[in-house]
Amino acid sequence: MPGHRVEAVANAFLRRAMAEGATLTNMTLQKLPYIAQGWALALLDRALVADTPVSYPYGPVYPTLYAALREYGAGAVRRLIRQGDGMPGAFFSRDRRPVIDAVFDADEARLIDAVWESYKGFSVPQLTALLRRQAGPMAVARVPAGARRPIPNAAIKAHYAALLDARRGAA
Q: Where are the beta strands (DSSP E) in 9-108?
């Protein structure tokens, strides 16, 4: 299975947040699908997210998701992501465009729930620090002078598989 659109995975987290009265920002919504992708690659041996993240100074960014959420700046994302969000003139037709959704299988839904429960209490700076420490995929993809480089699934999987092995070894 090739994975789902990152906007659909982000909407899954947005739904969970809205159900609990919590808010998420664009930066948080960049990080939660990335973390879910890492755990999916390590635990399910398949991608949850079809899109490729790019290394930025404050963590991974999914360019299409960033564009869709650009209007919120650093503020709270107040609605689900719809087809065409981020496109010129999209603001004027937003309520007529369909929400980007996916049908998650049982394993994917459990994984998204587990990531939400494990990381929902983290602030943006805490998530950023978590994703930047160690010699993980963010370090592999970082390049000088503000250039951006895709973060390959193989690097993400290796990092989360090592985290999984460390957790199993500590148990």
A: 54-56, 59-61
Taking 60 as the threshold, does the pLDDT of residue 1 lie above it? Answer: no
The pLDDT, as a whole number, for residue 17 is: 98
Q: Which two tokens stand for residue 112?
A: 């998204």
pLDDT tens digits, residue range 17-28?
999 999 999 999
Segment 45-77, tens digit of pLDDT? 999 999 999 988 888 999 999 999 998 999 999
Q: How far is CA 83 from CA 22, 72, 93, 131, 153, in A?
A: 23, 16, 10, 29, 25
Amino acid identity at 171: A
Every domain of the chain and the residues it spans: 6-170
Taking alpha carbons only, the member of 48, 61, 38 closest to residue 118 is 38
84 CB-contact burial (10 Å; exposed 0-12 / middle 13-18 / buried 19+): middle
Q: How far apart are CA 25 and CA 124, in angstroms?
A: 8
CA dihedral 6, 10, 12, 16 (to 10 degrees): 170
Q: Report the DSSP beta bridge partners of residue 25.
A: 76
> Does the reported pTM lie above 0.85?
yes
The pLDDT tens digits of the residues spanning 70-108 come to 989 999 999 999 998 887 765 555 567 899 999 999 999
